[in-house]
Amino acid sequence: MEGIGPHGRVDGESISRLLRAWRSRVDARTIPELRGTSPRPGRRLSQAHVARLTGVSEGWYRALEAGRRQDFSESFLLRVAGALRLSEAETLTLFLAVCGRRPPGELSRDRKDLPHGVAALLEQQVSYPAYLSDVAWNIVAANSLMGEWFPWTRRPGANLMRWALLDPEAREQMLDWENSCARAYLAMLRVAANSDPDNAELHTLVRDILDADADCRRIWSAEHDVVEHRDGHVFGLRLPYHGNAEIRVTTHVLLPIQRPDLRFVFITPLDGWSGQPG
């Protein structure tokens, strides 16, 4: 009987049935790696064939197809996806069912390879500053108003965390920098680094920030707050774009379904402010 197991994962029987169905549609005779093997493969791709193609014992693959909980590595699951010729959506289903996370290859896509709809939405957002950032807070794209409010986003290699926590300009422009900016961003870094322990870029980002700034080291060592995102966070700014007048804004964070490795963030003013420079 199909269902959802603990932690929202598809249970073992469901993924078992999917794996058997995916395996049954592959014609073993079309796989070059199986040519010349003995016995000669017939049309049906067997569990032994998949084990051979993925470099594991037949018992290890059988455990996966039976839905038994094992320590299956990401590289093994990717090899299974290749052997069974799974689509992107099928590979995603396999990973979510077996280990509860998305395939690592999803994050290796070109940062500029944006779906047309996402790029158009960003370009057409003319009322408020908006930008796209990746899992390490690199600025992937920004609309023109974001560049006017925050010229640093136009620089090559712009990174939100490096600017907010290390650039002296941020301490002038982000009001109450330590409480409103630094503590929140460091708490977000703590969540990200622990959620993706194999992401070398994230760990380098954390190390560089802590190595470079004494205030960040003090906050990091003294506190243990964790924050996943800043959606709905209200903070104050003092920007040259607004004649250095103090304004209050809030951030809104969306996840594009076609690129879940990116954040779509836009900033809206509070207190009835029009959004235009005074």
Integer average pLDDT: 83
Strand order of the largest sheet: 2-1-5-4-3
Give the helices and strands as they follow along the chain.
Answer: HHHHHHEEHHHHHHEEE
Span of the ends, CA to CA: 64 Å
Uncertain runs are 1-13, 107-111
The biggest beta sheet reads: 5 strands, antiparallel
Structural Rg: 24 Å
Oligomeric form of this entry?
Answer: single chain
Q: What does it look like?
A:
Helix content is 43%, strand content 10%. With 278 residues, the protein is α+β, with helices and mostly antiparallel strands. Strand 3 (234-238) and strand 4 (246-254) form a beta hairpin. The longest helix has 19 residues, at 177-195. The model is unreliable at 1-13 and 107-111 (pLDDT under 50).
Explain the layout of strands and helices:
Blueprint: H1 12-24, H2 47-54, H3 58-65, H4 74-83, H5 88-99, H6 116-124, E1 130-133, E2 139-142, H7 144-149, H8 160-166, H9 168-173, H10 177-195, H11 200-212, H12 214-222, E3 234-238, E4 246-254, E5 263-269
Antiparallel strand pairs: 1-2, 1-5, 3-4, 4-5
Helix pairs in contact: 2-3, 4-5, 10-12, 11-12
